[in-house]
Amino acid sequence: MKIFMSLDVGIAATDNQDFTQDxxxxxxxxxxxxxxxxxxxITYGKHFAKPGWNVKYQxxxxxICTMYPEAEGFSIMVVIPLSMVPLLExxxxxxxxxxxxxxxxxxxxxxTLWLMIRVNSDIALKNVKQLMQLKEIxxxx
Length: 141
Fold this sequence. Notes:
With 141 residues, the chain is an alpha+beta fold. The chain has one domain (3-139): Alpha-Beta Complex (Aspartate Aminotransferase, domain 1), CATH 3.90.1150. 35% of the residues lie in helices and 33% in strands. It is built from four helices and seven strands; from the N terminus they run ββαββββααβα. The strands form two sheets. Strands 3-4-5-6-7 form a five-stranded antiparallel sheet. α1 (20-36) packs parallel to α4 (122-139). The longest helix is centred in the C-terminal third of the chain and has 18 residues, at 122-139. The protein is globular, with a radius of gyration of 15 Å. It starts with a strand and ends with a helix.
């Protein structure tokens, strides 16, 4: 069973598990803290898509993203404005097909897309970072 050890450590795997998820988790956590100058907060969410323990990152009352620990990786909820979709489609050669398909098929909610992205590889991690950086550059959040 995975547990939160501390805010800065993320999740701990049992002895016989692959520690890839811990490396990816730490990398993403470090990126968010440095890029957005925020601290993580452990919360228990009742979100319909992913209820349970999570780590939320907020700045000025706005949620930047929420990370959900899982076996062999984690999922991250990122909300992007619909106006960002053409920019992402123009970058299609740099973004993993699965993430592009998620963006194209997501149902808009108040001019935004709520993306629950599974991060279980370096490529997925890189794409999520790109997505968050682009959102910050273009929209300031």
